[in-house]
Amino acid sequence: MSFIKSSINRIKYSVIFFLLNGYIFPLPNIVLTNCNIIDGNGGPIQKGMYVVIRDDRIYKISKGPFLIEDENEPKIIDLNGSFILPGLWNNHTHLSDLLPDINNILGTENSIQASIRAGRNAMDALKSGFTSLRSTGSRDYLDVYWGKAFEQGVFIGPTIYSAGNPIAAEDGHGIDDYAWPATIPVTNGKEMAEAVKKHIDMGVKWIKIMADELTKEQIKIAVKIAHENNVKVVAHAAEKGAYRAVKIGVDCIEHGYDLSDKTLKLMAKNGTYYDPTIVCNLSSEYIKERERKITDVGIHSNKTIIDGRVLVAFADERSSKVAKRQRRILLRANELGVKITPGGDSNPLDEIGLLEIEQLAFSGLDEMQTLMAATKISAEMNGVLNDVGTIESGKIADIIVLKDNPLEHISNIRKLEMVIKNGSIVDLSIPESQKSFWELYFKKKEDVE
Ligand SMILES: [Zn+2]
Predict the structure, then answer these.
(1) Which of 18-27, 67-76, 241-250, 338-347 shows the lowest per-residue confidence on average (mean pLDDT)?
(2) Of 32, 35, 16, 13, which is closest to residue 24 (Cα–Cα)?
């Protein structure tokens, strides 16, 4: 009898102990100590802080040394004065796209081959600090499926805000421009409605339209159906189609070639975001300026990457005039209060994504604003600022750790020490025999074999 009693008591006490520990005094999983926080809200750096992460969330942020008051030891990581930021975003991505495609891969591969590259590309991006990607067009819903695979933990990758296939007019951008089996044509409002509904059924978060050649009616239908279903609309547009698209109510303009003051003012008024893909609009002078600035902080990339990043960030026209005009438009947009987010457009998503963030600063935005664009503003644009985008307690722990201060030089975003995705530390190591994205897809076949 007494044995049973004491057993019951033991169970009772262990339940109480469990409750105290687990709920009333929750145990931290990871504690990052001795760090400086750039929280994404634009305030001054918070120095000498510690951050407690429990499960997938930021549990506590506090000043001073962390004291262990509990025998159940958390995983404590001394960051030695490194910088904590929210995870980065790349808002204009094509997971399986290749530009240039020197081996004509896109024109000959099937969906499975494209999918393998898409997954690798996204996982590489996470290892460079991109905890979230917005897809602005992908064949065969690869973006949707990879997004789900990462969400379910099949692989460790970024969160993907997918768009499925871009939708264009029959003569629109992406239809006949090059071998890109992604963009689908519509000829009337009915077809637009069907395409948008199918995308929504497949689980996209965005509808991507090529706005310049679509009719007012077609854009209206896309925006109406998307918004009714809590899905946003992103428009590839130059001045020709941008004003109309903004007026109808698209959520974001991509590229924005030649945007006028009239359009920019309407964007500022309506809260339409601008993703300038500025890295695709550089002249040789700007490229020289960029390369010099990157090496300023001791970053020396290998030759394949330096050559590659000139090639892959495609420009419609690599002229000084176009580059200057697009830079002027970016700065004017900023001056007028248009919300700007970074999107690299080209691949690989990691390198070109970093380059786009750097290029916002090199083009004249200040570092704090650039970092906010790549974190908080991006999360806001994607409608998930309640959960991610800043370092605040209660938010999902999507965090990067940088060795040096990115407010002193934006290229310090390349000095990555740690990535935390959904509260777990990401393995940043690269297996020795694994080939780089550059070697795999941007080298002439005969050079590789
Ligand atoms: Zn694009």
Answers:
(1) 18-27
(2) 16
Alpha carbon of 277 to ligand 1 centroid (Å): 8
Cα(345) to centroid of ligand 1, in Å?
A: 5
CA distance 141 to 164: 5
pLDDT the model gives residue 443: 82
**136 C-alpha vs ligand 1 centroid, how far in Å?**
6
Answer positive or negative: Cα dihedral of 409, 411, 416, 422.
positive
* Signed CA dihedral, 126, 130, 132, 134: sign only: negative
Q: Where are the domains of the chain?
A: 87-389
Strand 273-275 versus strand 252-257 pairing type: parallel
Question: Could you say which of 1.25.40.20, 3.20.20.140, 3.40.50.150, 3.40.50.720 is the CATH number of the domain covering 87-389?
Answer: 3.20.20.140
Q: Are 184 and 167 in contact (CB under 8 A)?
A: yes
Report the separation in Å between the CA atom of 329 and the middle of ligand 1, taken as the mean of its atom positions.
19
What are the structure tokens assigned to 177, written together?
């421009």
Closest of 371, 420, 428 to residue 398, by C-alpha: 420
> 92: CA distance to ligand 1 center in Å?
6
CA-closest candidate to residue 435, choices 120, 131, 129, 125: 120
Report the separation in Å between the CA atom of 180 and the middle of ligand 1, taken as the mean of its atom positions: 11
Tell how far the Cα of 138 is from the centroid of ligand 1, in angstroms.
10
Q: Is 364 exposed, middle or buried (0-12, 13-18, 19+ CB in 10 A)?
A: middle
Ligand 1 centroid – CA 233 distance (Å): 14
Q: How far is the CA of 372 from the centre of ligand 1 (A)?
A: 22
Q: What pLDDT digit, counting tens, does each position of 184-242 carry?
A: 999 999 999 999 999 999 999 999 999 999 999 999 999 999 999 999 999 999 998 99
Mean pLDDT estimate for the chain: 91
- From ligand 1's centre to the CA of 376, what distance in Å? 22
